[in-house]
Amino acid sequence: MNTDSGRPEAALEARDRAALRALFGLPTGLLLLTFAYATTRYVVFGPWTVGHIPLYVLNKAISWSALWLVALALALGPLARLAPGRFARHLWRRRYFGIMGFALASLHVVMSLAILNYAYYRQFFRQAFELTALAEFSMAMGALAWFLLLAPLAGSLPGARAQMSARYWQLLQKIGVLGMLLGGLHVSYGVPGWLTPAAWYGGLPPITLWSASAVVIALALRMLAPRSSGEAQ
């Protein structure tokens, strides 16, 4: 059976199946891993109870997974230039990693606003209703990061790349890199905790530190393997 486009139905199903695996396979595995880590750190070794798993703990895993997926989407191009035999065949997946990263980031925004109060984020507040300067900076960076990530998301929509010049598609990617950088600055509220390993729950590094490391790795890869002029990757 052929479709209107002339492609066999089996080929279209294989394409869609591969796309769904890219969209949900690695992101689901990453989310399960980060959720297990967050539960171990905050509930098993930390002061939070099982009742805080559905929102507070899950939100930690979602934010971590979101930033790692965005970083992976923006690092696959440099990885393909550094090791084309290993990574070039996976370039098509970055669109799906970026889309899912943005979706999780959006979910993180909603969940965070639902519990943004003194009881949950005491370190954010100078007093019950006044944010600290660091918390205000962190929130501003997070909001700007989400807004800027709309640019590479638009470039990831079906057919968008084919309608754009290489120059302007690369511009969207650069805006995405800036958004990722601001996402790294968003987790800067956790810096004081990075410097006190003796206070880490169960000796496990804070999730904000793991999240920031994704940004550092992606930026380092992009500096190691800069794109040549006019290159589409």
TrEMBL record:
Residues 65-183 form the Ferric oxidoreductase domain. It is found in: Membrane. The chain crosses the membrane at residues 20-44, 64-84, 96-121, 133-154, 175-195, 207-225. One of its GO terms (cellular component) is membrane. This is Ferric oxidoreductase domain-containing protein. It comes from Immundisolibacter cernigliae. The keyword Ion transport does not apply. Keywords: Membrane, Transmembrane, Transmembrane helix. It is a multi-pass membrane protein. It holds the Pfam family Ferric_reduct.
